[in-house]
Amino acid sequence: MLLAAIDTVLLVMVLILTYFYRFVGDAPPVLSGVTVDPVIISALVGVLWLAALALVDSRGEAVAGVGLEEYRRVLNASLGAFGALAIGSYLVQAQVSRFFFAFSLPLGVVALVLGRWIGRMFLRRLRVRGRAVTRTVVIGSHQEAAEVVRRIRRNSAAGYVPHSVCLLDGPAQASPADLAALDGLRRVPYRRLRDLAASGRVGAFVVARELPQRTTRELSWSLEGSPVELFFVPRLTDVAGPRMHVRAVAEFGLVQVDLPRFSGWSHRLKRAFDVVFSASALIALSPLFLVLAVVIKFGDGGPVLFRQERIGLEGEPFVIHKFRTMVVDAESQLAPLKGESIGNGLLFKMVDDPRLTRVGGWLRRMSLDELPQFWTVLGGRMSVVGPRPHLEHELAAFPDEGLRRLLIKPGITGLWQVNGRSNLSLTESIQLDLSYVENWSLTGDLAIILRTVRAMFRSQGAY
Known about the structure:
Low-confidence stretches: none
Number of domains: 3
Structural class: alpha/beta
Largest sheet: 5 strands, parallel
Radius of gyration: 27 Å
Helix content: 40-55%
């Protein structure tokens, strides 16, 4: 209801602005030879627009406040409404002002997206306070349930919070890390799930284990009539929803998965985006580059840039360039400090690293040391968004599946940058990189860039 009210207020404001800017003092439009009050036309446009937003379920619980799908539906509804308006005006020979298309449409889309963003910020604050959340029951083994619980907690913006778990194995099979993740959650026997669902104390069930077909069917039947959502964690954990489609084959449903491709027009489009974005960033940030270069140079007289060989696309080495944040002989001072690393086992990360220069810590917290890498992107060895570029000895310790990161170019930013950076474990880092490699999209890249800007100011996990 709140989103519907926000949409209505914003569209009324846009249409009022259109009316006063275009129609006041001008001749009214004509519909099949009959003069029509522009107020009526504006009202019809507003009703059609609001109906289109409702028709595509742009305010549904599955999309409201989470991910890009909400914004995509707002855009599709707006284009669909004005497409219908154009076709309808042609069929009835109505002289509808082009100003609606040239002014109201883009202004309205911007206003609606901004309104949804403000709504998200409001919703996020409520969820931080424990309100507007869905209490969730996780069903599976200790290991499976713990992994789902960690993911739910890491993605708190989705509005789901772990409430209880139904464990299908004994505690002897659980690791200390899994037991720690499940600590504080209520244990519910499988036979009591139906009663818990009917009680109204929880709103969602997540099945983390692949149950036998009969058990799955009986579970869904037992929850019929309960005000709960039922989710199943797919076995293909790195495959995002847009790549999965249900098809009726041989009289039963099969899930078709679109295979990832690492060439073609989508990758050419990604490269074009990289060139435009990096060139624009270098031009816009050139004054900042100059200031930072002067500050670093006059700090200790050492070089402005730090150069290091990393491993890129298909295992080819390349040289990255960053603003120098450490003393000149930082590498020679590393050995005595390795015992104080808080990294994920491969990466050396340390709070209050004594090798940082006076401005180095600030540059790292704001991720400003990464900016020279736009030159590397422009040269074609990196992308704006992609997996983290690693050193050769770091990749040598990766499991085989972790090396799939080498199928695409490494990025200045990526899912690792916006999901905790140094706070991530090695397993979590690999999962994020695999997820990106398998499911990347240009719209997803844009979302990661926007989230990176926010992460830069929050400085979470930046060491």
